[in-house]
């Protein structure tokens, strides 16, 4: 009995061991299977994650070059302003005489006038004396070592760069200098619409007789923009002056380079934006009512002055809103911000505000700054010490003596106040309240008390000279910017404008650079169509903006400038005289592209080789793509990877939130 029980226990132990071994084997097989399955799953997940990351990176890269990349259809255009005629020879010392010129106006007038004066000196075979820039010559305390020309530009580089074209001297010979001081020499007021025939028939005989003539340049130039084909070499000379000879002095160039480096810090691209809000141009086009209160009165007063001077032959009061709809008024900063948002520029985009004068002050910039907090200007990225380095040492101006107001009868003042009519003239403070000192200061302080604008004070003249320096800094930064957006280019006024000069310089240096050329009339219609919900426009409005601006940076925008900008200002469109191409005419597709390359000569082989070595972009934009609308339709999907970088394109029907315009 006992033996049977022992056998039973042994069998149980045996079977238990067998079952344990079997379970162990099964568990090992299960673990091996799970391990294999897990590795396959992890490998699949890793592959899918890598593909997703690559897709997001490709999407981000795609949108980066769509917003910042160069334009493929314009890549074959290259700068080539060298003389091409075999008969083009250098200047002769035995020429027809000296030309002395006085230039009036701001930065744009000065730059374009210098180019025209050099070209005119070549046409008349004359020696050019360094032009006298009146905005600087009138400056009190200017050092004797600094001339009005050297205040902005490098004189040595200017003379040496044009040595094979024109003889340029710093000063007149003593006998002619004495005649200049006594005004005993023929003086002509040059016009920007003058033709070469006028100078050859009317001015050249006088120059040959007296060997010395003077020109007063007030229109921002002294030679018409478009010249006959026989004067193509003169057009190329204009380009050599503007884009190769006119170097800003060392201090200005160095500070501008520092500004560009700071704007591109951490590899970020930036947009240069010039509002074009200047009092003269606003008055010329009758854009007073798009501003308010004091600024409207200032514009109207200036418009009245232009009418009295004969510069403008229109009525004083015009409908500013009709002018705005016709494209005659600038794009306001708020509108530019909405356009950039519609293009897809994120709120962290760096925007450089160019221009020494923004009429309306910081108030008109508030909406744009709210949309793009990284809106900066020279005062934001440069210290006062750095800005003072380009100004140099200046003597202290005498303090203004406070003039006592005339004695008035209180009853008469109160009667005038009660009987005063409505605007446009803003009323002075009530007679019961004194006029504070800060209300008398500033260039606009006269408007409430006087009928006429006062003569500029020494401080005003100094500020005008400083504005030329600020414009020089902004010009360099705008030309080198990754993208440029003009607020008021090609305005059709009698003066050159800053944005057109920048556009022409960028078109010459690198035609494929991203330069927007908006049609203000077309955009005014778009803004009128969505005036009730500007900040939440419908999707078709956003697509229309994208389509228009994408066309403006390509050959369509360039061709439009051919008809609109070049007749007014040659330097805004130096094609085809100052450029060459690396493609054959048969390779160009599309009517607009053929117009761009029409008249272009082939680039020399050495220039082609240099361009191949200098090619640095990887993914240029192809604006000749017929799938633009398809790519624009796919914008919403990649925007998920950008987060706040894309504009919320909810339509007005889908948006129930408060409208910011309310």
Task: Draw up the topology in text.
Elements: H1 2-68, E1 77-79, E2 98-103, H2 107-124, E3 127-129, E4 132-133, H3 134-137, H4 155-161, E5 168-169, H5 174-181, E6 187-190, H6 196-210, E7 212-217, H7 232-245, H8 250-263, E8 270-274, H9 279-285, H10 293-308, H11 320-325, H12 333-343, E9 350-353, H13 366-371, E10 375-376, H14 378-381, H15 384-391, H16 410-419, H17 437-440, H18 458-480, E11 483-486, H19 498-509, E12 514-515, H20 520-529, H21 539-552, H22 555-564, E13 579-581, H23 591-597, E14 601-602, H24 605-614, H25 628-633, H26 639-642
Parallel strand pairs: 2-3, 2-4, 2-7, 3-5, 6-7, 8-9, 8-11, 9-10, 11-12, 13-14
Antiparallel strand pairs: 1-13
Helix pairs in contact: 2-7, 4-7, 8-18, 9-10, 18-19, 22-23
Instruction: Give the mean pLDDT.
Output: 81
* Low confidence ranges: 616-662
N-end to C-end Cα span = 105 Å
Radius of gyration: 34 Å
Q: What is the approximate shape?
A: globular
* Amount of helix: 40-55%
Main beta-sheet annotation: 6 strands, parallel
Coarse structural class: alpha/beta
Number of strands: 14
% residues in beta strands: 5-15%
Tell me which oligomeric state these chains represent.
single chain
How many helices? The count is: 26
Describe the structure concisely for a colleague.
By secondary structure, this protein is of the alpha/beta class. The protein has helices spanning 2-68, 107-124, 134-137, 155-161, 174-181, 196-210, 232-245, 250-263, 279-285, 293-308, 320-325, 333-343, 366-371, 378-381, 384-391, 410-419, 437-440, 458-480, 498-509, 520-529, 539-552, 555-564, 591-597, 605-614, 628-633, 639-642, and strands at 77-79, 98-103, 127-129, 132-133, 168-169, 187-190, 212-217, 270-274, 350-353, 375-376, 483-486, 514-515, 579-581, 601-602.
């Amino acid at each position: 009995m006992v033996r049977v029980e022992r056998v039973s226990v042994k069998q149980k132990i045996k079977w238990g061991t067998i079952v344990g071994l079997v379970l162990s084997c099964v568990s090992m097989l299960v673990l091996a299977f799970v391990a294999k399955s897990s590795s396959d799953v992890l490998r699949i997940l890793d592959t899918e994650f890598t593909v997703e990351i690559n897709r997001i990176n490709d999407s981000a890269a795609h949108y980066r070059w769509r917003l910042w990349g160069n334009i493929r259809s314009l890549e074959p255009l290259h700068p080539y302003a060298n003389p091409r005629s075999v008969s083009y020879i250098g200047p002769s010392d035995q020429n027809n005489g000296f030309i002395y010129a006085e230039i009036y106006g701001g930065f744009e007038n000065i730059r374009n006038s210098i180019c025209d004066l050099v070209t005119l000196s070549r046409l008349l075979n004359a020696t050019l004396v360094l032009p006298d820039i009146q905005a600087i010559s009138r400056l009190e305390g200017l050092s004797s070592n600094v001339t009005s020309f050297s205040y902005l530009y490098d004189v040595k580089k200017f003379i040496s760069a044009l040595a094979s074209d024109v003889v340029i001297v710093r000063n007149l010979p003593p006998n002619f200098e004495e005649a200049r001081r006594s005004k005993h020499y023929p003086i002509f007021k040059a016009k920007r619409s003058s033709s070469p025939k006028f100078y050859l028939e009317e001015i050249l005989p006088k120059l040959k007789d007296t060997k010395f003539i003077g020109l007063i340049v007030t229109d921002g130039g002294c030679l018409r923009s478009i010249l006959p084909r026989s004067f193509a070499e003169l057009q190329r000379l204009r380009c050599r002056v503007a884009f190769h000879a006119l170097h800003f002095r060392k201090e200005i160039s160095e500070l501008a380079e520092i500004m560009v480096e700071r704007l591109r810090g951490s590899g970020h691209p930036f947009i240069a934006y010039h509002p074009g809000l200047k009092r003269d141009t606003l008055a010329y086009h009758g854009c007073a009512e798009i501003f308010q209160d004091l600024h409207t009165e200032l514009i109207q007063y200036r418009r009245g002055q232009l009418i009295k001077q004969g510069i403008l032959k229109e009525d004083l009061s015009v409908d500013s809103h009709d002018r705005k709809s016709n494209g005659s008024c600038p794009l306001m900063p708020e509108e530019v911000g909405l356009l950039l948002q519609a293009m897809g520029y994120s709120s962290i985009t760096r925007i450089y505000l160019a221009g020494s004068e923004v009429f309306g002050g910081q108030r008109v910039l508030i909406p744009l700054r709210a949309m793009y907090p990284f809106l900066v200007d020279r005062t934001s990225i440069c210290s006062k010490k750095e800005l003072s380095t380009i100004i140099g040492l200046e003597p202290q101006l005498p303090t203004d003596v406070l003039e006592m107001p005339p004695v008035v009868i209180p009853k008469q003042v109160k009667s005038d106040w009660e009987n005063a009519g409505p605007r446009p003239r803003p009323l002075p403070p009530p007679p019961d309240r004194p006029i504070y000192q800060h209300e008398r200061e500033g260039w606009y302080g006269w408007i409430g008390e006087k009928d006429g604008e006062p003569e500029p004070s020494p401080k005003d003249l100094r500020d005008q000279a400083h504005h030329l320096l600020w414009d020089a800094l902004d010009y360099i930064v705008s030309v080198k910017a990754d993208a440029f957006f003009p607020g008021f280019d090609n305005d059709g006024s009698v003066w050159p404008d800053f944005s057109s000069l920048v556009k022409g310089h960028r078109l010459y240096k690198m035609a494929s650079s991203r330069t927007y050329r908006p049609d203000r009339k077309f955009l005014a219609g778009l803004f009128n169509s969505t005036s009730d919900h500007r900040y939440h426009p419908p999707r078709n409005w956003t697509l229309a903006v994208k389509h228009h601006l994408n066309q403006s940076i390509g050959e369509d925008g360039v061709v439009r400038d051919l008809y609109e900008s070049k007749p007014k200002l040659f330097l805004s469109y130096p094609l085809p005289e100052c450029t060459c191409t690396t493609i054959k005419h048969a390779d160009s597709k599309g009517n607009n592209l053929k117009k761009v390359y029409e008249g272009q000569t082939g680039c020399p082989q050495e220039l082609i080789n240099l361009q191949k070595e200098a090619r640095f972009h990887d993914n240029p934009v192809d604006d000749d793509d017929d799938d633009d609308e398809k790519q624009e339709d796919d914008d919403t999907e990649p925007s998920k990877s950008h987060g706040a970088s894309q504009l919320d394109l909810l339509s007005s029907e889908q948006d129930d939130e408060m409208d910011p315009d309310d």
